[in-house]
């Protein structure tokens, strides 16, 4: 059951609706989405999606998430330029978690690191194990 993934974007609304119907969104209408670099397997980040962000992702082939803090859609890279092109999308066995295989342009983390998983326990303390590759100020103009 392996093979070439279906091409994204998926312009057919009926096909997208079938995929959306298979997802088990939580009571807030959200589903966790893990972004993984498609060619290396590096786990980049975790974010949330709602039906609208997932539909946009399927329709455009560009990662779009739901920002709980902003209360709306968040198109990855819209302010930083660090875009995620979705190469493939997978749904877990329970239908309640998404895996996005992406081609990440630049860094994935808002802290300027390649991925969001840069804290690890070392000698009883949480320690940064990866330095920023770019300053957040240069990404967001802060």
From TrEMBL:
PANTHER family: HISTIDINE BIOSYNTHESIS BIFUNCTIONAL PROTEIN, HISTIDINE BIOSYNTHESIS BIFUNCTIONAL PROTEIN HIS7. Gene3D superfamilies: Phosphoribosyl-AMP cyclohydrolase. One of its GO terms (molecular function) is phosphoribosyl-AMP cyclohydrolase activity. Catalyzes the hydrolysis of the adenine ring of phosphoribosyl-AMP. It is an enzyme of class 3 (hydrolase). It comes from Sediminicoccus rosea. Homodimer. Pfam families: PRA-CH. Its EC number is 3.5.4.19. Residues 45-118 form the Phosphoribosyl-AMP cyclohydrolase domain. It is found in: Cytoplasm. Mg(2+) binds at residues 92, 94, 96. Its cofactor is Zn(2+); Mg(2+). This is Phosphoribosyl-AMP cyclohydrolase. Keywords: Amino-acid biosynthesis, Cytoplasm, Histidine biosynthesis, Hydrolase, Magnesium, Metal-binding, Zinc. Binds 1 zinc ion per subunit. Binds 1 Mg(2+) ion per subunit. The keyword Kinase does not apply. InterPro entries: PRA-CH (IPR026660), PRib_AMP_CycHydrolase_dom (IPR002496), PRib_AMP_CycHydrolase_sf (IPR038019). Belongs to the PRA-CH family.
């Amino acid at each position: 059951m392996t093979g070439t993934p279906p091409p994204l974007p998926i312009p057919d609304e009926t096909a997208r609706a079938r995929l959306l119907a298979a997802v088990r969104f939580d009571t807030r209408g959200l589903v966790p989405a893990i972004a993984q670099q498609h060619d290396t397997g590096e786990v980049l980040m975790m974010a949330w999606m709602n039906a609208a962000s997932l539909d946009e992702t399927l329709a455009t082939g560009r990662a779009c998430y739901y920002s709980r803090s902003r209360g709306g859609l968040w198109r990855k890279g819209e302010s930083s330029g660090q875009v995620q092109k979705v190469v493939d999308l997978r749904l877990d066995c329970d239908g309640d978690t998404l895996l996005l295989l992406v081609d990440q342009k630049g860094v994935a983390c808002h802290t300027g690191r390649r991925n969001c998983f840069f804290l690890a326990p070392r000698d009883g303390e949480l320690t940064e194990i990866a330095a920023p590759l770019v300053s957040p100020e240069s990404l967001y103009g802060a």
